[in-house]
Design a protein that fits this description.
alpha/beta, eight-stranded parallel beta sheet, 8 strands, 311 residues, TIM Barrel, 11 helices
Length: 311
């Protein structure tokens, strides 16, 4: 039987909270997962870029996935899907991450291209990497294209389509590159029933939906999950004007969020929703909102206001 694809909807790439000594703050992370579930998101992405995956060891990763899966099940959200970041420089290490994620309750693995030896990462090498991983993976995988964290590696639509057509265990992609044309080419070539292409930023959520995105995987959903779900609802109801109004707010807020980074996202969540902190693992600095400028805070506060008005 061919593997399934992630369900259509909003996915939050969950931030990972830490205590002052940089150990996992599971209590705050689970509180955050609960708020996302209650906000109506379809699933969570754990240990992605916003989850500070490079700063987590194997024990952290296993503990985090298992704790979130068990917590969601206990709360009655067993249907929520978990996509878990499992990328590593080698095929061998990537497969170890995937095996551990699968044992801990993950549904899908999200894989960055190997990027330590950037100059050696030709399209053929990248395609070989993903084929090797997918062929041995116990979980179906999604290709993660994010040039900002891979030394500029930008996987082409040609490569993604070729990989999906040659390996049935490759069931989707996340395009944080922001290339809506690439998303359109992929979604119009590959059957939606066997491949889920996701836009990877709130900045182009509505345009991504129009281009065939399977929903969205967006950092700003950590702050405003309900607003993202409402954009999706309006789009599905044919209220494009209403969706555009909210999209404008999301685009301004997303641009501001990029300026404060991962620990800034956590600081905003802590300030507005009362749990966690802006603590990261070094070399990332701990952040608080009182260090942010007005041009960062204002668009984010507008989205927070919308979030708190959503039912």
């Amino acid at each position: 039987m061919a593997p399934g694809t992630p369900n259509f909807g909003v996915y939050t790439p969950l931030v990972t909270f830490f205590t002052k000594d940089e150990s996992l703050d599971l209590a705050s992370t689970l509180t955050h997962a609960k708020r996302m579930a209650e906000g109506g998101v379809t699933g969570l992405v754990l240990q992605g870029s916003n989850g500070e995956a490079p700063h987590l060891d194997h024990n952290d990763r296993k503990s985090l996935v298992r704790a979130v899966r068990d917590h969601l099940n206990e709360l009655g959200y067993a249907q929520m899907q978990l996509i878990v970041g499992c990328g590593a420089p080698s095929v061998r290490e990537t497969l170890l991450h995937i095996t551990e994620a699968e044992e801990s309750g993950a549904d899908f693995a999200l894989i960055l291209p190997s990027s330590y030896w950037v100059a050696a990462m030709t399209p053929a090498v990248i395609e070989g990497f993903f084929n090797d991983v997918a062929s041995s993976s116990p979980l179906p995988i999604l290709i993660y294209n994010f040039p900002g964290v891979t030394g500029g590696i930008d996987i082409s639509s040609d490569s993604i389509i070729k990989l999906a057509q040659s390996n049935s265990n490759i069931v989707g992609c996340k395009l944080t590159c922001g290339n809506v044309g690439k998303l359109q080419r992929i979604s119009s070539t590959l059957p939606a029933g066997s491949f889920a292409a996701f836009g990877g930023k709130s900045d182009f959520f509505l345009p991504a939906l129009l281009a065939g995105s399977n929903g969205i995987i967006a950092a700003l959903a950590n702050i405003a999950p309900k607003v993202h779900v409402e954009v999706l609802r309006r789009y599905q109801d044919g209220d494009i004007r209403g969706a555009q109004e909210l999209q404008s707010c999301l685009s301004h807020a997303d641009d501001a969020l990029v300026k404060v980074g991962v620990t800034g996202v956590k600081a905003i969540v802590s300030h507005h929703f009362g749990y966690g902190s802006g603590q990261g693992r070094k070399p990332l600095e701990s952040r608080t909102v009182d260090t942010f400028s007005a041009n960062v805070l204002d668009p984010i506060q507008r989205v927070v206001g919308l979030e708190k008005m959503c039912k």
